Amino acid sequence: MAIITPTNTPKPGGCVQTFWETVTQSDSAAVLELPGASDRTVHFYGTWGSATGVLQGTLDGTNFFTCHDITGVSISFTANGVAVVAENCLQYRPSFSGGSGQDVDVLMFSHSTNY
After folding, report:
1. Which of 5, 67, 98, 114 has the most CB atoms around its CB within 10 Å?
2. Torsion angle, CA of 27/5/58/81, rounded to 10 degrees?
């Protein structure tokens, strides 16, 4: 089991793109610390193999919960999708359950004065 560490790429206008590449059913995703980021959008895409992927957040670094989109619906995918993240958390991570043959990439785009 590998821990997939996100990579951050600064973008114009004080934005940052975060990328968790090739998360399989036997992997877990490392947390992304993104305090003070605004306008967060997340994109899950790839080969799903019947897996379910959610975006989780935490304010205390220990207790993670499933984040919601701006309409209040849990951010949960079983196929490629994009959602705007409502919560402003200290840390984020994608999390997956079920499935086999999974190879999913996760991109998060946000405005952050830290980059």
Report:
1. 67
2. -70
Per-residue pLDDT tens over the stretch 35-78? 778 889 999 999 999 999 999 999 999 999 999 999 999 999 99
Report the sign of the C-alpha dihedral through residues 9, 38, 43, 89, in that order: positive
Place of tokens 């975060």: 18
Pair of tokens at residue 30: 């490392």
Sign of torsion, CA 38 66 61 19?
negative
Separation between Cα atoms, residue 77 and residue 40, nearest integer Å: 17
Residue 100 banded pLDDT, cuts 50, 70, 90: confident
